Amino acid sequence: MRTKRIRISALAIILVGLSVITLAITLSRGAQLGVEGEDGLTAGRSDAARVAAGAVQLQTIHYQRCGHSVLRTVDSQPEWAGLTPDELTARLDMGWRVTDFAPDRITMSKNVMLFCPQHYVLMPDETGQICVWTNRYGDGMERVRDTSVTLADLPETQRELVRVGVAFDSESEADAYLVEQTSGR
Ligand SMILES: [Zn+2]
C-alpha cells in the first residue's frame, strides 16, 4: 500500500508539473494574442488616414533636364477611396512617391529625365536628322517638325550637346541657333 501511495504521489507531481507547463504555454500564447490585439487597435486608430472619395492629387513633376517643376491638380481615381497611404503607394505608377497625405489631398512628386513643356528642344531622331521637339503633355518629348540640318552638319563642339537635346524658349531661337552653327560650313 505504502509503495503504491508513493507512486501515486509521484504521478501526481508529474501531472501537476505537466499542468504548470501547459498553463505557462497557454499564458505565453495569451500574451502573443494580446500583442496581436494591440496591432488590431493600432490599425483601427489609423482609419482616418485613408483616401476619401473625391480626393484630389497635387502632383509635382520635377523635370531633370531643365530644372523646372510643374504642379498640377488631378482628381484621384474613384477606386482609390478607402486605401491607406501604403496601399495607395503600391498602386501608383512607377516613379511617383507620396510626400504628404491627407484623406482629401494626396501630395506626390516624381522626377523625370525630360525637358518641361515650356521649351522647344533641338535633338536628332534615330537617323541623325535634327528635329524640333516639345513636351506637349508633360510626360514625353514629341516631334514638332524636322529641320534641314543633320548632326554631322554641326561643329564637333556642339554635336554632343544636341545629341542629348538643347532647349530654347521659341522655335525661332532654335532656328537661329542652327543657322549660326552651320553658317560658313
Ligand atoms: Zn523647363
Question: What's the layout of helices and strands?
Answer:
Layout: H1 2-45, E1 56-63, E2 69-75, H2 85-91, E3 97-102, E4 105-112, E5 120-124, E6 129-134, E7 142-150, H3 156-164, E8 166-168, H4 171-182
Parallel strand pairs: 1-4
Antiparallel strand pairs: 1-2, 3-4, 5-6, 5-8, 6-7
This protein binds zinc ion.
Residues 63, 66, 68, 115-116, 118-119 line the site of zinc ion (ZN).
Summarize it.
The protein has 185 residues and is an alpha+beta fold. The chain has helices spanning 2-45, 85-91, 156-164, 171-182; strands at residues 56-63, 69-75, 97-102, 105-112, 120-124, 129-134, 142-150, 166-168. 39% of the residues lie in helices and 28% in strands.
Q: How many structural domains can be distinguished in the coordinates?
A: 3
| Helix and strand sequence | HEEHEEEEEHEH
Residue stretches low in confidence (pLDDT < 50, at least 5 long) are: 25-45
Instruction: Give the helix proportion (percent range).
Output: 25-40%
| Average residue pLDDT | 83
Give a quick account of the main beta sheet: strands, pairing sense, barrel closure: 4 strands, mixed
Side by side, the strands of the main sheet go 2-1-4-3
Sum up the overall morphology in one term.
elongated
Assigned CATH class of the largest domain: Alpha Beta
Radius of gyration: 34 Å
CATH level-3 fold name of the largest domain: Ubiquitin-like (UB roll)
CATH architecture of the largest domain: Roll
Strand content is 25-35%
* First and last CA, distance: 124 Å
The number of distinct helices, counting runs of at least 4 residues, comes to 4
Give the CATH H-level superfamily of the largest domain: Bypass-of-forespore C, N-terminal domain
The kinds of small molecule bound in this structure are: zinc ion
Secondary-structure-based class equals: alpha+beta
